[in-house]
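Memo to structure team: turn this sequence into structure tokens by end of day. - J.P.
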Amino acid sequence: ILICPSVSLPSAGGAYLSKGLDMRLRLALIAALPLVLAAKAPAPTVQQVLVDREKQSWAAWQSKDLAFWQRHLSADHVELDGPDGPQDRNYVLTGIAKRTCLVTTYNVDNFTFRQLAPDAAMLVYHASQEFACGDKRIPNVGWVTSVYKRRNGQWENVLFQHMEVPPPKKP
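Reply from structure team:
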């Protein structure tokens, strides 16, 4: 919006507004401009919110941020990440609290989003990480499925499934 100080604004009767009123009107418009611009900023999409949340979960996994995980996981969370089959929320929280190996690096990419219902959505993506357990380095690469449910206005992770992709066989 460009407000030109040399132009007077006409009033309803065709006469021009006084310079004092004209200046007040310009100042009011300038003051309102940030509110108008802020009102037009779109809210993040569900996809943006959940991809961001998933990335935060990986940072919290690396830093062993137990408080994040207590907020992130639903009470009925299911974890599928190994040969022992489905595990619950306590399995994840205990694993984070007691983990002795460090996540030295990780990367998440190739996100695919599906809105399953107004309050349910799924992300599928590629993830890689490397653990350091003493002098031993353990690479881990795979595909992740992460399902979210919105309850009481908050998105909660109800399912996390990691399907490891084994390294290529050496000839």
